[in-house]
Amino acid sequence: MNQSDYPLSEVPTRARKGLLSTSAVLLGFTFFTATMWAGGSLGQAFPIGQLLWIILIGNLLLGTYAAALAYIACKSGLNSVLMGRFCFGEKGSKLSDFILGFTQIGWYAWGTATIALVLVRTTGMPEWLEIPLMVLFGFGFCITAMIGYKGMDWLSRVAVPAMMLFILISLFTGLVDVRGFTGLSQQTPTESMGVAAAITIIIGTFISGGTQATNWSRFAKTPKIAVIATLAAFFVGNGLMVLTGALGTMIYQQADIVDVLIAQGFVTIAVLMLFLNIWTTQDNTIYNFAVAGCNLLRTEKRRLVTVAGAAIGTVLAVGGMYNLLIPFLVLLGTFIPPMGGVIMADFWLKHKGCYPALDIAQLPDFNRRGLAAYALGAGAAYVSPLLPPLVGVAVAAGSYAMLLRLNHATLSDTLPSPAKQ
């Protein structure tokens, strides 16, 4: 655990990683149970032909958004919370630190509760073990995150190929059981859902992760590697998770791959899949929290913040976070994406595709234009009946572009005095 993983600075050239390493970590992040649950809701509402197009479009939009941020992250060596200093200001960026950190700790709590409850249900353990297991996993899953990028890389290189194999085994078995695509085409929807709502669900399940995937794409050796690895994770990987959940629901009335594997008779594989699936996302999630926390507190003690975050997540898990997934997804889809819109507009329009070095940059305490654009984007996403995440990104980016053209006293930024620096 000697490496700090540069929580408050750019990733230097010597620490950059190749395509295999970057892709493994990002794919491990997107292989997540909650995404399959979202896919399950789609599987109940659409015939297979329409479903495949919806999954393709939704994940292409999600992947494009995440890849755009990945390009900026690799070019600058910065993650989203450090980029937030440029578009929100030194003190204003604490808003993004808090929101991004809060959402990630919510996911960590949900994952910690999920594995404990599913493991008890799957193995027949007594119910009183649920809370002790939450405590065990709540602190156990943060170990690779404490090590840092290298720890998550090691885990993902083993876990991602194994999970891919388990998923393919399950999908092949399911297609055999349902008599192939002929049988799938005969399935009739049991629920009603609009196409726009379905695409919103797909994007909303992981757009928070896409915004913070810059924590790893900034380690890529080249922008091309960052973009390819991010698309592999958020277009292909996340799309596979949605499809797996949808097909599981259509064939077995179970969205979770663990329940499907048990229904297919693969109990041992199901337990292994449960551990690998949750762990590879949990360590990424708590790492995200730690990075946001380090920027919020301006501390290099990433490992200490990681443990503190794991403790908070464990308390939330014991307190019932498991039952709050749907409103939590709505929260993510509304308030996270506009940050990415402001970051992209700030990088390309104000800084012309090149940030100055963070340690010498003269930044205001509050970037009023960035904060106002974020507020407008979040408000638009909240009231929009159609594709709120995309509306939030577009309005935030467009508002920032327009505000950059205005020269008004209320929008001017005041640099901190030398004494304050």
Q: Which structural traits does this protein have?
A:
single chain, 421 residues, mainly alpha, Hydantoin permease, 19 helices, globular, disordered C terminus, CodB
Structural description of this entry:
The structure is a single chain. The protein is mainly α and 421 residues long. The chain has a single domain (18-410), classed as Hydantoin permease, CATH 1.10.4160. It is 73% helix and 0% strand. The protein is built from 19 helices and no strands. It has helices spanning 19-30, 33-43, 48-76, 80-88, 93-123, 130-140, 143-147, 149-177, 180-185, 195-212, 214-217, 223-252, 257-263, 267-297, 302-318, 325-335, 337-350, 368-383, 388-405. Helix 18 (368-383) packs antiparallel against helix 19 (388-405). The longest helix has 31 residues, at 93-123. It is globular, with a radius of gyration of 21 Å. It starts with 18 loop residues before the first helix and ends in a 16-residue tail after the last helix.
Q: What's this entry about, in short?
A:
It is a multi-pass membrane protein. The protein is mostly helical. Helices cover 73% and strands 0% of the residues.
Counted up, domains total 1
**What is the rounded distance between the termini?**
31 Å
* CATH architecture descriptor: Orthogonal Bundle
Please bin the fraction of helical residues.
over 70%
Write down the CATH class. Mainly Alpha
Number of strands: 0
- Spans where pLDDT lies below 50 across 5 or more residues: 417-421
Q: What is the count of DSSP helices, taking H or I runs of 4+ residues?
A: 19
Kindly report the average pLDDT value: 90
The backbone outline, from C-alpha atoms, is globular
The CATH superfamily is identified as Hydantoin permease
